[in-house]
Design goal:
mainly beta; nine-stranded mixed β-sheet; five-stranded mixed β-sheet
Length: 328
Amino acid sequence: MNQAVNQVRFALPPDELPLPPPCISFSPSRSSFGKGILEFFGLFGHGQKKTLLAAMDYHGVSLMYDVDDCIITDIDTPKVPKLCEPISVALGDALYVMDSKLIPGRRSCFDALILGPSKDLLCTRSQWNWCSLQPPPFIFEPGYKTTRIGAYTVFGPSSILISMPNIGTYSFDTVSSSWNKAGDWELPFHGRADFIPEYGVWLGFSAEGNQLCYFSDLRASMQQQRALDTVWDDPNMQLFLNNPTPLRYTRILSSQLVYLGSGKFCVAKLFERVENEVIEEGYLPRHESFVVLTGLVAKPGKLARGIEMIPHKSLLYRFGGIANCWAF
């Protein structure tokens, strides 16, 4: 199957704005190697209200923030902190968090944040608690070496799919808490793909070129490897990544897609620009990070097949030094 490639023409260059004042700030516990690092997960919640973000530092200290009510809540610490660049998906009333680098034999790589009875016997209110889950079975196989999860998504009402190069795709059933191998094929995405029920498609970023793309029939791909239905070519990528030199180059660090509802989306791409200053000892690298936010509106494709993306303006925000970025 040949994939279609459509060009989304953004305004070039994006408008550049200063970062607005933060509505809230988080700080990790200090560590022996500096200020420490925070990881953020979300959005998730109970029932229809998916307004919660979770934050965890390298010590496992966890907080939860309700973006609607502007309330911060302490939550318990998982048995083992997440140290290997964790990924997360919200499914049902729970948040599932897994190390993206799956280390051989590491049993503490997969947890869920679940609303349940309080561990305090004197408390009658339900609380969010971390629960350890069974890790993928292949990490215990002889000869297995540390592998990074290449792509992951939610499938159906209770399944999480993860794909690894040269290993294939595995499915975790959240009802039975069991793993099964879906096949030797791999999901045709890079990173997380989100199912958009209004259009019946999975939206994510392509493994080649890191471009926004969609896939309409994930069940059929379980029978044989299939190509993406459509890849939208983003000219902004060429604007920032063209003409690299040993002294100055830009690379993309991450891409994230946020569904805003009513067919509206925001694409957030984090870039790092490196300029190497020549000194007697060699090079002194200077880092600058910036994020480009692009608004898109989806509409049904021609002849009611697939979807098309209508671009709106792009905004660029700069950071000092090396940064990370989450978009929800």
